[in-house]
Amino acid sequence: MKKATSSVTRKAILIYSGGMDSTTLLYSLISEGYLVKALGVDYGQRHLKELDSARTVCEAQGIEFQIANLSSIRALFGQNALTNTSVEVPEEAYDAENMKVTVVPNRNMLMLAVAISWAIGSEFRTVAYAAHAGDRAVYPDCRNEFVEALGRAAELCDFKPIEILSPFIRMSKAEIVSIGSKLRVPFHLTWSCYKGEALHCGTCGTCHQRAEAFLISGVPDPTHYATPPKIEQHRRL
């Protein structure tokens, strides 16, 4: 007589900004059968509007969404365009030189630490985040080495190991858009623009990166831009 096999539901805490990449990861986890809880983080970012997008998507999917408020420490992050409104958001090209003023020191480690705490408290064993290859030249906490090192720490921070899942770490943003298109991700609900105004501005570096990703992937861009981005060449994002 065969023994009945019990199925174990995989559970993950997703660091969720409401952007294209993390929304694609949300839909990917759901498609793989994960029970997901989503974590938004308010770290004092000028584009706090991204968390409204995150909440909208989670409500539509019936996903628990919580916001960790770290805004009280924004003064510790120095001169960067995301938490200090006296620094201008860079326009046009999304590259390391232009976007370096958007680096919030150690942002991903802070987010991952909070997500790991929530995972342990929820008895979840996986934390997922959507860092991708196009960001590693700009943001040091999106590099493979960072993910691997923090993964080792996550195995030791509790008596049971926590897994750090970052499936997009070697993918371009255009590849992520292609995956999201197949998963029917509602890209029109996602938010990328660092200016955080009524519409995507279409002129900042993140709007350019967003528009280029759609163009390269061949997926129609549903975004309403205040000013249509001028994409002069295809780059690997």
Q: What can you see in these coordinates?
A:
With 237 residues, the protein is α/β, with parallel strands linked by helices. 33% of the residues lie in helices and 11% in strands. It contains 7 helices and 5 strands. The chain has helices spanning 20-31, 49-61, 96-99, 107-122, 144-154, 173-182, 205-217; strands at residues 11-15, 35-42, 64-69, 126-128, 163-165. A 5-stranded parallel beta sheet has the order 3-2-1-4-5, with helices on both faces. Strand 1, helix 1 and strand 2 (35-42) form a beta-alpha-beta unit. The longest helix is centred in the middle third of the chain and has 16 residues, at 107-122. The protein is globular. The N and C termini lie far apart (54 Å). The relative contact order is 0.17. Residues 1-6 have low confidence and may be disordered.
Features:
single chain, 237 residues, alpha/beta, five-stranded parallel sheet, disordered N terminus
Brief characterization of the structure:
This protein is of the alpha/beta class and 237 residues long. The chain has helices at residues 20-31, 49-61, 96-99, 107-122, 144-154, 173-182, 205-217, and strands at residues 11-15, 35-42, 64-69, 126-128, 163-165.
Q: Which parts are unreliable, with pLDDT below 50 for 5 consecutive residues or more?
A: 1-6
Derived structural class: alpha/beta
Nearest-integer average pLDDT:
92
Number of strands: 5
What's the SSE pattern? EHEHEHHEHEHH
Strand order of the largest sheet: 3-2-1-4-5
Number of helices: 7
User: Taking Cα atoms only, what radius of gyration do you get, to the nearest Å?
Assistant: 18 Å
